[in-house]
Amino acid sequence: MDTVKQIATLEADILNRLRHWKRYSTIDVPGTSTGNSDKETMEWKACDAMKKELAMSRARETNRDFETTIMEVQWEVAIELGRILAETIDPAIAGTEDVTIEEEDGEACGICLEDLKKGEVVRAMGVCGHKFHCHCIMKWVKRKQNCPLCRCALKPKKYVF
Ligand SMILES: [Zn+2]
Ligand SMILES: [Zn+2]
Hints:
This protein is mainly alpha-helical and 161 residues long. Helix content is 51%, strand content 7%. The chain is built from 6 helices and 3 strands, in the order αααααβββα. The protein has a 3-stranded antiparallel beta sheet with strand order 1-2-3. β2 (121-125) and β3 form a beta hairpin. It is elongated, with a radius of gyration of 20 Å. The structure holds zinc ion (2 copies). Residues 109, 111-112, 114, 132-133, 136 line the site of one zinc ion.
């Protein structure tokens, strides 16, 4: 894999983790609402360092100045990143939506069958409205692109990143 692709792949991975942080992280950091994204910050900095390194070697090889090659590298990574993210839009995000449980009415997660609690934010299927815990439906849609209860298709809507 060339370096541009490699950097873009790392960045896409970091962005995906951050985007799903609160909902899908299994790690709970007490006292914080956003979780601990130190790891992601470190990795993002590492990506920046890789870009600089690539730009420096390009500058040396082609006898251009760093200002020009760093712009070029950043641009190429951005294009590649866009391409990767477009392809990796998570179907669980695209085909389901956040729903806050207003009232406990004995409705259960269709996968683990645990009751959905008041105030809990769950994911509802865009088409049929069946509700599931985020982590439950995430696991499911990785394997099947339909509703576990009624089998209607998971229809991705356009996701704006
Ligand atoms: Zn569940
Ligand atoms: Zn359904």
